[in-house]
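Encode chain A's predicted structure.
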Amino acid sequence: MSAALSVWLDLCRVLAAAVVFVGHSRGLAVAPDWIAPHWHRSADDAVIAFFVISGYVIAWSVDRPGVTVRGYAEARASRIYSVAIPAVLVALALDHIGMRLDPTLYAVDWQYPRPWLFIPIHWLFLGGTWLGPMDPFSMASYWSLPYEVWYYVLFGCATLLHGRARAVGIAAALAIMGPRIWLLLPCWWLGVLLYRHGARLALARPVALAVMALAVAAYGVYAASGLRAEADLASRAMYGTLNHWLPVPLKPGGTVHPLSDYVVALLFAAFLVGCASSRIAFGPRTAAAIRWLAGYTFSLYLVHFSLLVLFAAAGWTHVDGGRYALVIASTLVAAWLLGQIGEVRRDLYRRAIAWLLDRLVGPHPPRVPASGKE
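Encoded structure for chain A:
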């Protein structure tokens, strides 16, 4: 992966996180009325961009000598748990505050009386599998983590295992996933294919710039013309047909509109193909600023929804521009604070996971140093 493309991926992370935040704030009415309703729907598209980026980066992370199953597991687990563990606990605390202000915004009789049961389920990322769909407390954005984690597991089994162990691992991962996670697997695996076939997709610079522009324009037309709405209707019709034949109805969970998600994934993949050959240079300061911001996108993604629900419980709905600026600033500060005990401390989580694995399965030989992109 070139240094320029690495910055492009980080920039896309930052923009996707911003779209998710704006879309969810509009959906919860914790935003000015002049923000168009379509932002709420576009938040789902931004998550699909995260999936494509994730598949690309994970494929890149194992494409070097010395990567082992153990090292891969430590890297993936530390990446996820460094944010998922503190974020779930922070969300639970925020929700208890919010329930005192407006309990009607919370399912007070659902998971809150039994956190000892539900928190382990969510830390094992089973909420999107056959047990779900369910998210921890008010953390609606958490829905994508079980998808990501089980894609990591599937990819690790397919790439790092061999023979019978590989076949058993793949079968077990797919069996645990369930249909909701299966449906969005092509979006994530598209990122893997982009990385693996990147050399074949190299373009001349003028063509690359044109592809980038066309991908952005095509998405704008797709979202605004009614084509996305038609694809969403087709997804609902697909679920209707499936549920007509299935003995138990399949609830979509986070996989609400998979047919539209496939289109968005392809358009975003085209944009990344253009980025890879665009030769657009980022200055050192710009690149550093983008990387710094990208370092907190995971924290922002997980903590923002519970904060927005809390603002709604406090009566901050249909706010003016000034109050919305305070909502944004408060959420960014919360994401930064969460990052200080999460993403920034990832090495501590990795050492703790390595210590635990040493005692469960025995010591591991010296590891290849983790890349910051993993």
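Residues 40 and 251 are 20 Å apart (CA to CA).
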